[in-house]
Design brief:
heterodimer, A: 286 residues, mainly alpha, globular, B: 315 residues
Chain lengths: 286, 315
C-alpha cells in the first residue's frame, strides 16, 4: 500500500510534467518517460560523484533534486527543436517526441551502458520506521513528502504568481494572451523546462529505492499516460488523483493477483475514456 | 503511364530478388511484405481518414498469435485457413475496440489505441499459460496452397515458395486497397479527413465511416502480422508493445503517408536502413530517432514526397 503511494508520488511528478506541457502547448510528450529515465541515471551519477567528493550521506536527497533540476536544462534544447512544428498537426508533434524517445534511449545506452545501476543501501541513511509490524524506509516517506511539496509548490505557482497566471492564460487562450503582449516563446520555453524538470526530478528520486534501468522510461510513459487519461488531460488535480489511483491500484493488484497488474490499469483507463472522455477532472473539449 | 511502367519495373525487381540478392537479402525482404500489408491498412486510417493510431501493432500481434495458435496448438498448417482466421480474429477484436476508439479523434484516438495495444500486450505478457508469456509461441512452417514442400530446407522454403506467396498476397492486398481508396467510400474518408463537419452536413456519417476504415485497417494489420510471424517462426508479446506501433507509424511516415505507395516504400526503407545501420553501429535508435525527427520537421511527406511531389493521397 505504501509502496503504491511511493510509486504514485514519482508517477505524479512525471504525469504533472506531461499535463503542464499538454495543457499549455497541446503537445503529448511521449519523451517525458525518457526524461524520467535520464533523471534516474543522472541522479545516480551525481550522487556517486558527490559521495566521492566527500558529500555527507544524509545530503543524498538534496543531491538528487539538484541533479534533476540541473538536467532539466535539456528541456530547453528539446523545446528549441519542438519549436519547428508548433503550427503543425498534433499527430506530428507526438511523432517528434517519439523520435526523442528513440534518441534518448541510445543516449542512455551511450553514457551508461545497458547494465542497471543501484545505489545499494544508501537510501537507508535516513533510517527505517516501524509501523505496526511494517518496516518502512524513511527515504520513501521523504520522497512522498517531496512530491507532495512539489505539488503544493506547483499549485501555488500556477494560482498565485504572476508567471503562473500568464501560463494559465496561455493555456486558456493562446491568441488572446499573445495579443495582450505575452511573449509566447518565453512562456513555452519555461513551461517545457518545468515539465522536463518534473520528469527528471521524479526519475532522480526513485533511483535510491529501486535502480536505474533503461526500460524504465518507455514502461513508465504508459503508466503516466494512464494517469493523465484518468485524471483528465491538462489538469493538475487530475494528475494527482490519477497518480494515486494508478499507484495504489498497482500495489493492490501486485499483492492480490499479480497477473492483472497492468490489465487493471488499462481497464480503468478505457472505462474512464468511455464514460468520461475528458477524464475525472478534465474540461470537456471534444 | 510512367507510373504504371515504374510499378511494373519495381514488381519485376522484387520478383527477381531471390535470383540476384542471395539468401540474406531475400530473407530480409520477407518482413517487408508483412509490414507493407499492415501499413496499407494503417495508411487508410492516417493518410486517408486522418486518424493516427498508436496501437496498430495490436492487430499485427493478433495476426502473429493467430498463426502461432493455429500451427502450434491446433495443428492447422494451411496458410489460407490461417489467414482467414486472422481476418476473423482481427475483426472480432476490431469491432468493440473500433466502436470505442472512433468516438474520438486526434490525440484522444491515438491515446486510446495505444491503451488498447498495451492492454493486449500485458495480457500476452502476463497470462503465461495461455500465451507463453515473454517467450511467446512458436509458429510452425505452414503449407502453401496445400503443398508442404518437404524437399526444401527452411531457407529454401522461405526464399522460394513463401517469398512468392507473400509477394502475391501483397499485390492482392494493394489491389484491394487501391479499389477501396478509389471507391466512393474512399472519397468519403478523404472528405472526413479534410473537413468532418462539412462531410457530415452532406450526409457522410463521420463516425460510421471512421469505424469501417478502422475495421479494414485491422484486417490488413492481422494479415500482415500472420505473414510476419511465419518467417520469424515466433509470436512474442513485443509485437504488441507500443514502441512497435511507433515503428509502424515511423515506416509510414518515412515512405510518405500522403501517397498510396508511400507506406510500402517506407517499410522497404525502414527494413534495409535498419539492417545497414545496425551493422555499422549499436546505436541505431539514435540514428533512427534523428531520421524521424528530420522527416517530421522537414519532409512531412516522406520519401514519396521527395520522389513524386504531385502524388498526394488522392490529390
Amino acid at each position: 500500500m505504501l509502496g503504491g503511494v511511493f510509486h504514485a508520488a514519482t508517477l505524479f511528478l512525471v504525469a504533472a510534467g506531461l499535463q503542464l506541457v499538454f495543457g499549455v502547448q497541446r503537445i503529448v510528450n511521449l519523451a517525458c518517460g525518457s526524461f524520467y529515465a535520464l533523471g534516474a541515471y543522472f541522479g545516480f551519477s551525481v550522487v556517486t560523484w558527490a559521495l566521492k567528493g566527500g558529500m555527507p550521506q544524509p545530503l543524498l536527497l538534496v543531491a538528487l533534486i539538484l541533479g534533476g533540476l540541473l538536467l532539466a536544462a535539456i528541456g530547453l534544447v528539446v523545446e528549441r527543436l519542438l519549436r519547428f512544428i508548433y503550427d503543425r498537426d498534433e499527430s506530428f508533434q507526438m511523432l517528434l517526441t517519439f523520435a526523442l524517445v528513440l534518441i534518448f534511449e541510445d543516449v542512455i545506452r551511450f553514457f551508461w551502458g545497458t547494465a542497471p545501476y543501484q545505489l545499494g543501501n544508501l537510501y537507508l541513511v535516513y533510517g527505517r520506521l516501524q509501523v505496526g509490524g511494517l518496516t518502512i524506509p524513511v527515504y520513501n516517506l521523504l520522497v512522498i513528502a517531496a512530491a507532495a511539496g512539489i505539488a503544493v509548490l506547483m499549485g501555488w505557482f500556477l494560482a498565485r504568481t504572476r508567471a503562473g497566471r500568464i501560463v494559465r492564460a496561455t493555456a486558456e487562450n493562446r491568441a488572446m494572451s499573445e495579443a495582450l503582449g505575452v511573449d509566447m516563446r518565453r512562456v513555452y520555453a519555461r513551461v517545457f523546462t518545468i515539465g522536463t524538470a518534473l520528469g527528471t526530478v521524479g526519475g532522480a528520486l526513485v533511483v535510491p529505492a529501486t535502480a536505474a534501468m533503461h526500460e524504465m522510461g518507455i514502461d513508465l510513459i504508459v503508466e503516466a499516460f494512464a494517469v493523465v487519461v484518468i485524471g483528465g488531460l491538462g489538469s493538475m488535480r487530475g494528475a494527482f488523483v490519477g497518480a494515486l489511483t494508478v499507484g495504489v491500484l498497482k500495489a493492490v493488484a501486485i499483492a492480490t493477483y499479480p497477473e492483472i497488474e497492468m490489465l487493471a490499469i488499462y481497464v480503468i483507463v478505457i472505462a474512464v475514456l468511455v464514460l468520461r472522455p475528458a477524464g475525472l477532472f478534465g474540461r470537456a473539449t471534444a | 503511364m510512367i507510373r504504371r511502367a515504374a510499378l511494373v519495373v519495381v514488381l519485376l525487381g522484387i520478383a527477381g530478388v531471390p535470383f540476384m540478392g542471395g539468401d540474406y537479402y531475400t530473407t530480409l525482404m520477407l518482413p517487408f511484405f508483412g509490414y507493407s500489408i499492415a501499413l496499407l491498412g494503417l495508411n487508410l486510417l492516417f493518410g486517408y481518414t486522418g486518424l493516427l493510431s498508436f496501437g496498430h501493432a495490436l492487430f499485427v500481434a493478433l495476426g502473429a498469435y493467430t498463426a502461432a495458435y493455429m500451427t502450434s496448438v491446433f495443428g492447422i498448417l494451411h496458410v489460407e485457413v490461417i489467414l482467414l482466421v486472422s481476418v476473423a480474429v482481427a475483426l472480432v477484436v476490431a469491432v468493440p475496440v473500433g466502436l470505442l476508439c472512433v468516438r474520438y479523434v486526434k490525440i484522444y484516438f491515438g491515446m486510446l489505441t495505444l491503451a488498447f495495444g498495451m492492454l493486449f500486450y500485458s495480457f500476452l505478457y502476463k497470462f503465461y499459460h495461455l500465451t507463453g508469456g515473454d517467450e511467446g509461441i512458436r509458429v510452425l512452417r505452414p503449407m502453401l496452397l496445400g503443398q508442404s514442400f518437404p524437399a526444401l530446407g527452411k531457407v529454401e522454403f522461405l526464399t522460394g515458395p513463401y517469398y512468392y506467396y507473400s509477394l502475391a498476397l501483397l499485390v492482392a492486398a494493394a489491389v484491394v486497397m487501391w479499389r477501396v481508396v478509389g471507391s466512393p467510400f474512399g472519397l468519403c474518408l478523404r472528405s472526413i479527413r479534410e473537413n468532418p463537419e462539412k462531410a457530415e452536413s452532406v450526409g457522410v456519417s463521420a463516425r460510421r465511416y471512421r469505424f469501417y476504415a478502422f475495421l479494414i485497417a485491422s484486417i490488413f494489420g492481422g494479415v500482415g502480422g500472420t505473414l510476419l510471424a511465419i518467417p520469424t517462426g515466433l509470436a512474442d508479446p513485443l509485437l504488441a508493445y507500443w514502441t512497435h506501433s511507433g515503428n509502424l507509424v515511423f515506416m509510414m511516415l518515412l515512405g510518405g503517408f500522403a501517397n498510396f505507395f508511400g507506406p510500402i516504400l517506407g517499410s522497404f526503407g525502414f527494413i534495409f536502413l535498419q539492417d545497414q545501420v545496425i551493422s555499422l553501429t549499436q546505436y541505431w535508435r539514435l540514428v533512427f530517432g534523428t531520421i524521424l525527427a528530420v522527416i517530421v520537421i522537414f519532409f512531412p511527406h516522406g520519401l514519396m514526397g521527395v520522389f513524386d511531389p504531385r502524388a498526394r493521397a488522392g490529390g
